[in-house]
Amino acid sequence: MAKKKEKKKSKNKNTANETSHEHKSKLSRKEYDAKLFKLHAELVKLQHWVKVKGLKIVVVFEGRDAAGKGGVIKRITERVSPRVFRVEALPAPTEREKTQMYGQRYIRRFPAAGEVVLFDRSWYNRAGVERVMKFCTKDQYERFLAETPLFERWMVDSGIQLIKYWFDISMQEQEHRFQARMADPRKIWKLSPMDVASFKRWYDYSRARDDMLVATSSGWAPWFIVHANNKRRARLNCISHFLSQVTLKSHPHAEVEYKKILPPVTIPVWIKRKINPGRSHRQLVLQAEPHPGAEILEILAECIRHNIGFAVVGGLTLLIAAPVWRYVAVIKK
Asked: Coil, strand or helix: which one is 61?
């Protein structure tokens, strides 16, 4: 009995050490934001390089439910242009798509030159959820494993750079995140009946993952495993690795010309005389001395702003009438 108690105590100590070690390894918000800031700057450089060189990049994000795939995708795209970085998160196939060649709906969303497409789940659904939940036949599943490396070789040969990530978390961490989603009304939409079923079939998904990695990891499209129990570290590690996969050379941005906006011309104004010619219109007649070097249109605009009826410019008297107001308004636009 004493030995059993000692074993239990040692087990508790080990788990406590693991949790404390994991807690210590967590990044502070300040340190995390500082590192993420630098990575965002590098992603902007990558975006420019992709556009200049006309690169075509596909990034596949697969993994356990609640492993943090969406969080990484969000951090990648939040500081870059959606016209270059495009996210594809396809829903369940329609009845029409079920009759198509498998993978056809993904091919339609492949990138053109100068684009990066991030797949939040991909054609690997067949090797995971479709196998475990019996959404496909055994023959379809086996054919998928056999043909996928050839399909991805065709992608690479056509000029697409393919990068594949698998996000892995522990059973305890997945359960913790599911409970957090259920308790938070802002996150409840992330939890579906399929997610709950996946937790109940944890070991079935583990076997499906192992078979998929063995069959589809190749020299031209290898899998990269992201250990995601620590969200912040997983995000930084994944983005850093993604940046390292693209050969990036410094390419200066085009210089943007900036002309300083000058303040409006100030014209000292004083009342000369006041007239009331009739009911049809009233006009305050003022005399203006414009700033030296001011253009005629600037003078007219200032006269209108100050309700000046007449302006004397270099001995020339200008009548500020309604047609001139419209003319000046057109010029200002």
From this structure: strand
Identify which of 315, 316, 302 has the alpha carbon closest to the alpha carbon of residue 269.
302
Domain layout of the chain by residue ranges: 27-92+103-244, 269-332
Would you state the torsion angle of the CA atoms of residues 71, 76, 77, 80, taken in this order, to the nearest 10 degrees? 160
Bridge partners of 135? none
- pLDDT tens-place string over residues 194-224: 888 888 999 999 999 999 999 999 999 999 9
245: helix, strand or coil: coil
Say if domain 27-92+103-244 classifies as CATH 3.40.50.300. yes
Specify the 3-state DSSP secondary structure of 315: coil
Cβ neighbors of 45 (< 8 A, separation 6 or more) are 248, 250
Which residue pairs, CB below 8 angstroms and at least 24 apart, start in 213-216? 213/166, 215/127, 215/145, 215/146, 215/148, 215/149, 216/124, 216/127, 216/145, 216/148, 216/149, 216/152
Please give the model's pTM, rounded to 2 decimal places.
Answer: 0.71
Half-sphere exposure of residue 172, counting CA atoms within 13 Å on the CB side?
Answer: 5
